[in-house]
Design goal:
It is a single chain. The chain is α/β, with parallel strands linked by helices. It has helices spanning 27-36, 48-55, 66-75, 108-117, 137-148, 175-181, 191-201, 214-244, 249-256, 279-286, 292-302, 304-316, 343-354, 386-391, 403-406, and strands at residues 4-8, 11-21, 41-44, 79-82, 88-93, 126-129, 162-165, 184-188, 209-213, 324-328, 359-363, 380-382, 395-398, 417-420. It has 15 helices and 14 strands. Strands 1, 2, 3, 4, 5, 6, 7, 8 and 9 form a 9-stranded mixed beta sheet that branches. It has a 5-stranded parallel beta sheet with strand order 12-11-10-13-14. The longest helix is centred in the middle third of the chain and has 31 residues, at 214-244. The radius of gyration is 25 Å and the shape is elongated. Residues 132, 168-172, 224-225, 228, 232, 265-266, 268, 271-273, 275-276, 332-333 line the site of ligand SAJ.
């Protein structure tokens, strides 16, 4: 397993090439592709179940292709999971940076990870931050390490540990391909740190590797997700404008997108997940006076679930007595089982609470048991077969455009009332003359 034996504290210790701290949606794929490129990797997580599962060659999250890759890496003894970090030439920090209630970044996990590895650092050890973080976080980590390890400096007092930010950019559901093929932006606190980090990513990245400084890399990552958020907000605002002037927004988007330089995104019930709905706030926090558009976009997207709830409730009010409602989809986006910050889940939660006298039939093709967030309601059941859920309901609320739903005929044809937040059943009212 070890890349080299090393005498430390008088005993022969293992030293890994890379120690990845945090084995979630980003850390585990990163640890695995590194291991499968021939690097000796120790993966660290605070959860004993996660550690045990991985050492068994299995995974605790849903990501196509990941389990097979983990199993290979573990079998080849290139990847080991552990509750504690160990000596390594490089540390990759891939822990969450959640949003606090006051819309600022919670850096507790990142700083705790840095603190845990600090005692293991040596001269020339490379510390890479992958977690999406506010500008200045990589420098903050270096300052923490300088305080914890004042010994790691050269004769001129310059810190000898190297620090770089290499923000993750993979799309959940396509992580195993994108982690290899996407271009990587790497920002070192020094050019030497950038170069060392580039050498590591070159082992598995086939896309471009673009070197810059740490703060630029931090802002680049936030800019990418804010760009997407602002563009989705534009589509969502357009959908509200279309409602006001009584036209079909899906036709408007389709037609406008036939312009060679227009590419409007898809309106929907809100922006979910742990990235796009969070990261723009890090920009707003860093430069509040000038982040007007980014802040407004967040507000527009955050207001979407409430609008959908209002629309559904107005239709529930018109249902026959004992009328049932089908809810299609709970995940935060199509074809995944991830419920984190899902607008669909939030909408379902509010509807179940506000309409206790209405019976809800919930379909979610990727989840078969009632999610914990909805367990307390007695007016809802999970229904595995979406056709049954639709057949037994009077009102059908589509919240996620899972591929399964795209195969279904429009329930309107069976006389159902619909709320289609994703345009899956939007009839195309466009004539193209050939
Ligand atoms: N959404 C819309 N309309 C659209 C596209 C998306 O309403 O046209 C909604 C989705 O339904 C979902 C939310 O936006 O609720 C976010 O989904 P997503 O697919 O846009 O993005 P994520 O959060 O899965 O992944 C993003 C990606 N960032 C960009 O595409 C710029 C990914 O590359 C990042 O690595 C990831 O965030 C991250 O970890 O930061």
């Amino acid at each position: 397993m070890q890349s080299e034996g090393k005498i430390l504290d008088g005993s022969l210790q293992t030293k890994y090439d890379v120690c990845v701290v945090g084995l979630g949606y980003i850390g585990l794929p990163t640890a695995t592709v590194l291991a499968n490129s021939g690097v000796a990797v120790l993966g660290v997580d605070i959860s004993p179940t996660v550690v045990e599962t991985i050492n068994d060659g299995r995974i605790h999250i849903v990501e196509p292709g990941l389990e097979a890759a983990v199993s290979t890496a573990v079998q080849n003894k290139r990847l080991t999971a552990s509750l504690a970090p160990h000596f390594a030439s490089c540390y990759v920090i891939a822990v969450p940076t959640p949003l606090r209630d006051d819309k600022t970044a919670n850096l507790d996990y990142v700083l705790a990870a840095a603190r845990t590895v600090a005692p293991l650092l040596e001269h020339e050890t490379l510390v890479i931050l992958e977690s999406t973080s506010p500008p200045g976080t990589t420098r903050k980590i270096s300052e923490l390490v300088r305080a914890e390890r004042p010994d790691l400096v050269d004769e001129s007092g310059k810190q000898t540990v190297l620090f770089a930010h290499a923000p993750e950019r993979v799309l959940p559901g396509r992580a195993m391909r994108e982690i290899i093929e996407n271009d990587r932006v790497i920002g070192g606190l020094t050019p030497e740190a950038s170069d060392r980090a580039a050498d590591l990513y070159r082992k598995f990245v086939t896309g471009g590797i673009l070197l810059t400084d740490a703060t630029t890399a931090e802002l680049v990552k936030l800019a990418e997700n804010s760009f997407r958020d602002v563009n989705i907000a534009f589509a969502n605002e357009l959908s509200e404008i279309a409602d006001e002037v009584s036209v079909n927004v899906w036709d408007v988007v389709r037609l406008a997108n036939r312009h060679p330089r227009v590419n409007i995104m898809q309106p929907g019930p809100g922006v979910g997940g742990h990235c796009i709905a969070v990261d723009p706030w890090f920009i707003v926090d860093a430069a509040p006076a000038v982040s007007k558009l980014i802040r407004t976009a967040r507000t527009i997207n955050d207001g979407r679930p409430e609008r959908v709830v209002r629309d559904v409730l107005s239709k529930v009010g018109r249902l026959p007595t004992g009328g049932k409602v089908a809810i299609l989809g709970l995940a935060f986006k199509p074809n995944i089982d991830d419920l984190r910050a899902s607008p669909a889940l939030a909408i379902a939660d509010t509807l179940l609470r506000i309409a206790p006298g209405t019976e809800f039939l919930i379909s979610e093709p990727n989840i078969h048991e009632m999610p914990a967030a909805l367990e307390r309601y007695s007016n809802a059941i999970m229904v595995d077969d979406v056709r049954v859920a639709i057949g037994e309901s009077d009102l059908v609320v589509l919240l996620v455009d899972h591929s399964e739903y795209r195969q279904l005929p429009n329930p309107k044809l069976q006389g159902k009332t619909i709320v289609d937040t994703r345009g899956v059943w939007s009839t195309i009212d466009i004539r193209e003359v050939i």
